[in-house]
What does this fold into?
Amino acid sequence: MFRSAATVDRLITLLGKLPGVGRKSAGRLAFHILKMPIEEATGLADAIREVKEKVGECQVCFNISESSPCYICSDPKRDQSVICVVEEALDVPSIEKVDSFRGLFHVLGGRLSPLDGIGPEDLSIKALLTRVNENDNIKEVIIATNPSVEGEATAVYLSKLIKPMDISVTRIARGIPVGADLEYADVVTLSQALEGRREF
Amino acid sequence: MFVETISLENFRNIQQQTLSLNPRINIFTGINGSGKTNILESIATLCLGRSQRLNSSDSALIQSGREFFRLHGILQRQHRAYELSVACESSSTTRGKKIVLDGQPTRASELFRTFSLVSLSPEDSDIISASPSARRKFLDFHLSQASVNYLSDLSRYARILAQRNSHLRQYQLDSDGTPFDEEFITIGTKITSFRLEFIRYAQSCASEYYRRISSGEALGCYYLPSIVLSSADKKLSINERESILQAKSEPEQLAESFRARLELRREAERHRQTTLVGPHRDDIEITIRDLPARSHGSQGQWRSAAVSLKLAVYDFLKERKEEPPILLLDEIFAELDITRQDALIASFAELGQLVVTTALKAPGSIAENARIFEVVSGQAQVIQ
Ligand SMILES: [Zn+2]
It folds into this structure.
């Protein structure tokens, strides 16, 4: 069998740690990188370093951002009366694509899952409550967690906390097929899900 | 619907075998241990992606010393042919089973949606004599064939229940319940509703079959849904219990009752840190001549009662799917009085496909038009 150099081995091992990349495809990627022009390969390495150095979390909405507050939170043209709550930062671009939504976001950083040891204190729930409580502009909170068992439970949990604050709490409609993540839902489906949101 | 051909590879004691079946009646004869029952099991596994023996695991189906089993076959349904294969490898790296329907990888739920199958075997008396979980498995396996929504509700329910139990172990349960309760109630109520619908159907249908099998004895079949009946309610007379159920048969009433039962059991759930109310704690009570069959019946009565329930399921599936399921009869003639069953069984052969195993001679009324196979050490040969 072909024995590769120690540095190549290290690259294969590291690439293999990425989600969805097995040992075989890690090897293929590593050899692809080996054949790349030097500028392209170092460009990739720099991009990885920069993303880790520069990108952090917005301290208001917990979305990934190079600045805090992020460009969404600091944009005065956004509708300041609506907050859309999502599980992950990954979900924000999907909802941003829906033209009818121009409100603010709040990224929870996960969903309630006792089986995985994730409780309310592990999510940015306290910050959400403070945000809603201290900001008189907010009239509606749209809960756009995934339609999974855990996403539904998180939505119920949040609605019970926010409703007593005399704020309208809505849940996006079940237009999204059960088991599918927001991340993969198309724009039309998401737009319909937002249109058809119902009061908790 | 019927199985036209089936090829087996490394399945139980059968290394390699291809069979072409009669659309109506097929009889496999042979001594015990020859592999007749394994052929029936391969038909069920091909049609539904799993064994009809509900305690059997997928890997148990692989011939000992082999790495995999593979079944391949053609099924006919409403003038359309389906090409189907079901395979399972024992090695842990390639997880689980692979099901391919008409060239497309698919899940067992797709087979449950498309096909249906009922099997009768001497092991069925477990439905009457064993623990409540055996009766729930009986319900779930067959009702999942009747409604694919029921099947998806069951898997969602299992996930909610696991999360809810984990919540009860980690947090002090407060008066609001858990964040999982809303959906727990919605899905649990849907499962209970469908079980209730089936039991209502089986009450008249199964008792009619039992009356015919047992020359006039009365069989009773009663649902004990956990979301309605408390343990005190379960000690009431059958009439009293049935009238409680009658008053709460609408989905909204069931959901309301579920909510109230959870509230009543909140203290106990807090203490025991597990979910005490829900369809995972249901049972069915079977009575013979108004006495509980589990404690009062003989083994012969258990078998006849189990056959009656299975035939009721057959009729229920036939109505829901608008065509007769495939019917497997495993050594049923050795168990039941042939003269009495003969006509009954023959009446099913006129409806759909029937696959029978017997160590004895098959009764004349069904043997006449059947394709008959003789099975010797895992090899079947057509003899008629
Ligand atoms: Zn922000």
Notes: The longest helix of chain B spans residues 181-213. The pocket of zinc ion is lined by residues A 58, 60-61, 63, 69-70, 72-73 (CB under 6 Å). The longest strand of chain B covers residues 2-11.
